[in-house]
Amino acid sequence: APGQFIRIAIPALFAVAGYTWIRKDAALTEYFFPNGVSKGAEHAAQAMPLLLGNLLPSGILGLLVAGLMAAFMSTHDSYLLGWSSIIMRDVVAPLKKRSLSDREQIFITRVIIVAIGAVLIIIGLWMPPQESIWSFMALTGTVYISGALPSLLGGLYWRGASRWGARAAMLPATA
Q1: What is the pTM for the complete model shown?
Q2: What pLDDT sits at residue 175?
Q3: What is the distance, to the nearest Å, from the Cα of residue 114 to the centroid of all Cα atoms in its chain?
Q4: Interior/surface letters 58-83, b for 16+ CB within 10 angstroms, e for the rest
């Protein structure tokens, strides 16, 4: 799909530009490739910010940072609202003996948003990552896809779907 290509092509283009820019400067080449180019890069996460900081004028760089922050906030507020409403509708509401009013559902959803935010702050600030962020994202994405995707697709599109099948899809695979 064109959208996926753009999500891959633009970072790849930045990576090529950063590599070319670093290789033209001996001090940067020594910093990023202390063991030689064939041995792999050190401090690779610093390359793109350094490139953009030196390449773009400060006004454009400010607009870029503002746009990135806006996209970051938009993504995360959507995640918070989505997950809190899922928890409200699929976990809290079935546990209640009576149906909740709209006002009660909104209040509980807001409380869940604050709780999720607090957990994310605790995890983000006080738990050091054990591996790279990319590895963490790949692992959590795989866990989600392997358990939630079959439940979601089966529940939506298969007439024989049941609660037991959804629960079984969430169990870890055993060897």
Answers
A1: 0.57
A2: 41
A3: 19
A4: eeeeeeeeeeeeeeeeeeeeeebeee
Q: Which two tokens stand for residue 103?
A: 């006002």
Each residue's pLDDT tens digit, 27-86: 888 888 888 888 878 887 788 888 888 888 989 999 989 998 999 899 889 889 988 998
Closest residue by Cα to residue 84 from 92, 72, 95, 73: 92
- Alpha-carbon distance of 169 to 174, in angstroms, equals 12
At residue 132, φ and ψ (nearest 5 deg) are -70, 155
| Owner of token pair 């509708």 | 89
DSSP string, 108-172: HHHHHHHHHHHHHHHHHHHS--SS-HHHHHHHHHHHHHHHHHHHHHHHHH-TT--HHHHHHHHSP
In this structure, the number of other CB atoms found within 10 A of the CB of residue 47 comes to 20
Please check whether residue 42 is in contact with residue 32, taking contact to mean a CB–CB distance below 8 angstroms. yes
Sorted by sequence, the CB contacts under 8 Å of residue 48 that are 6+ apart come out as 14, 15, 18
What is the pLDDT averaged over residues 79-96? 89
Structure tokens at 41: 């890069």
Digit-coded pLDDT (tens) for 9-25: 887 888 888 888 888 98
